[in-house]
């Protein structure tokens, strides 16, 4: 046999072997074959849950396909563990929450994934229809607290790609008790005066990444709660909203800390805060350590760089107390742009546990044609490179 022929034969065998052993064909479940109607009016909750049941119960890797159109869904829980190595939701349509906020407003969550692994959500628009609830809250009327649009709890290896979340009643996306969550191309949209509509909230979770996303909302762009570690945020546009916030932390006496957070190449436009760390002025076991803010652009941000350890809303249960949250190793590198207030840098730290090893490196924040200022209380660290306003560390 000639050598070339043997090579071709070998390559052929490898391909056949791969197809039969590795590339197990995946199963696709179209929500319309389970009765979902793309008319925006028919309740499709049961159909989606049946499709999930079939996909999750299949031994093969499965895809749930949502064709174009609007699908009305009440609250839905998608629970695992599934029998297979993964379920993909491929959404070409829009999922719509009930317009009447009383239907899901007291349930906590609209679309809730729990105890799942290897779930992948690709594309689609999630429309929380929250505007009526925001009006109710702003008018100070009796209204429910509202539902989070998309929540993952106690889950691993999750991917959320190219998903848009608009007008959530409450938080848009919550990651709680999860490990290894990758989000990219996420688009969050809610008006700048919508209450409690945080874009992405992460807590009790590790190895979460948020890439290439745009978040416009009435509350935090990203909020980072207790027990978060190894969080990576890169190439994100924030605004309007309240910025990227670590906290509020230290509400409880016993609380896990936040560590290893990277916020890189982020632009804040017209937000209330930029890079914020916030803790209650109360005793706590909590901490924040190893945080890096790098290549950040601020455009008319009210508090571009802020650590506030005296959070005490309504001045109840905290006045006169001091925060127990220990803040250390916080680096700000290449932060530039404009502040909408005179105080561009503010470190208001705990008296008993001063902030330590804060590092400023090339920070330049201007305030119109007037000088900007920095303010420090109980904060220590170093500054290098160009620093405007002058460092108070
Ligand atoms: C910090 O988190 C990143 C992911 O965000 C990870 O790659 C890195 O290994 C972590 N570093 C430490 C010291 O755990």
UniProtKB/TrEMBL annotation:
Q: Which UniProt keywords apply?
A: Cell wall, Cell wall biogenesis/degradation, Glycosidase, Hydrolase, Secreted, Signal
From the UniProt annotation, give the residues forming the signal peptide: 1-23
Q: Which sites are catalytic?
A: 242
User: Which superkingdom does the taxonomy of this entry point to?
Assistant: Eukaryota
Quick one: a GO biological-process term for this protein? cell wall organization
Q: Where in the cell is it found?
A: Secreted, Cell wall
Q: Name one Pfam family in it.
A: Glyco_hydro_28
MF annotations from Gene Ontology: polygalacturonase activity
Please give the start and end residues of each transmembrane region.
Answer: none
Keyword set includes Cell wall biogenesis/degradation: yes
- Which family does the similarity line name? Belongs to the glycosyl hydrolase 28 family.
| Alphabetical list of PANTHER family matching this protein | PTHR31375
What is the protein's name according to its record? Polygalacturonase
Upper classification of the organism: Eukaryota, Viridiplantae, Streptophyta, Embryophyta, Tracheophyta
